[in-house]
């Protein structure tokens, strides 16, 4: 059994990010699913593991808890340097973190399950309202992201050069999430091209939501 235990949910894009990083690094782990739509992440047993009651959570050998996908991924990058998920130079690292955070900090937080659920329960939003909300915030983030990627000489096969890294992990997970809400990707040809390059890689395929043990 692996010393790493990943508490996650197959359809969670933040969980998907961590699974991609683990696969890229060749690190084995124990997969512990929590069905978010059934509220399993809010049960006392999981709260005892992660007081936030969110996924993903990575429990290290000895019981140390790490939460927040970007923090977990950077930890994995430090303990297993190959292949690197961040560039060697400071400016490159800043650019990759910028791109990753445009997704992880500006798009995902307003589109995660608890926010969408609150739209329904607190404001009476219907299915169409929720879908339109999701698409709106994706487009608000993807429009500038597409422009930056399209105009930057640092963009290659992937977000930064010709090897996948932290930004690509966030991009691929977000695009997978978008598909469930019918986001039109036609306005984002560079993002779509980079996503296709990511999804051609075994690590991204193996970590994909539909390939997890709790997939429905």
Describe the structure in your own words.
This protein has helices at 13-25, 44-49, 69-79, 90-104, 113-123, 127-151, 166-180, 189-199, 202-207, and strands at 5-8, 30-33, 57-59, 65-67. The chain is of the alpha+beta class and 216 residues long. The chain has a four-stranded mixed sheet, with helices on one face. The mean pLDDT is 97.
Tell me the series of helices and strands, N- to C-terminal. EHEHEEHHHHHHH
* Percent range of helical residues: 40-55%
* Amino-to-carboxy terminus distance: 25 Å
Q: Name the assembly state.
A: single chain
Q: What is the total tally of β strands?
A: 4
Instruction: Indicate the radius of gyration in whole angstroms.
Output: 17 Å
Could you list the spans in which at least 5 consecutive residues all have pLDDT below 50?
none
Largest sheet: 4 strands, mixed
Strand content: 5-15%
Concise description?
The chain has 216 residues and is of the alpha+beta class. 52% of the residues lie in helices and 6% in strands.
Keywords:
single chain; 52% helix; four-stranded mixed beta sheet; 9 helices; alpha+beta; 216 residues
Please specify the SSE layout and strand pairing.
Blueprint: E1 5-8, H1 13-25, E2 30-33, H2 44-49, E3 57-59, E4 65-67, H3 69-79, H4 90-104, H5 113-123, H6 127-151, H7 166-180, H8 189-199, H9 202-207
Parallel strand pairs: 1-2
Antiparallel strand pairs: 1-3, 3-4
């Amino acid at each position: 059994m692996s010393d790493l235990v990943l508490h996650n949910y197959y359809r969670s894009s933040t969980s998907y990010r961590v699974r991609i990083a683990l696969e890229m690094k060749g690190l084995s782990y124990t997969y512990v699913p929590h069905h978010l739509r059934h509220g399993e992440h809010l049960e006392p047993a999981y709260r005892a593991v992660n007081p936030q009651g969110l996924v993903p959570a990575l429990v290290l050998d000895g019981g140390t808890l790490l939460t927040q996908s970007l923090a977990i991924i950077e930890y994995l990058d430090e303990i297993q340097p190959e292949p690197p998920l961040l560039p060697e130079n400071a400016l490159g690292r800043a650019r990759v973190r910028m791109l990753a955070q445009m997704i992880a900090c500006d798009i995902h937080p307003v589109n995660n399950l608890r926010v969408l659920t609150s739209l329904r329960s607190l404001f009476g939003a219907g299915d169409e309202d929720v879908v339109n909300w999701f698409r709106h915030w994706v487009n608000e983030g993807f429009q500038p992201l597409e422009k930056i990627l399209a105009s930057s000489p640092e963009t290659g096969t992937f977000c930064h050069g010709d090897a996948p890294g932290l930004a690509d992990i966030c991009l691929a997970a977000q695009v997978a999430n978008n598909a469930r809400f019918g986001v039109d990707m036609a306005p984002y040809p560079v993002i779509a091209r980079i996503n296709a390059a990511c999804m051609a890689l075994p690590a991204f395929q193996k970590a994909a939501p539909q390939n997890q043990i709790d997939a429905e």
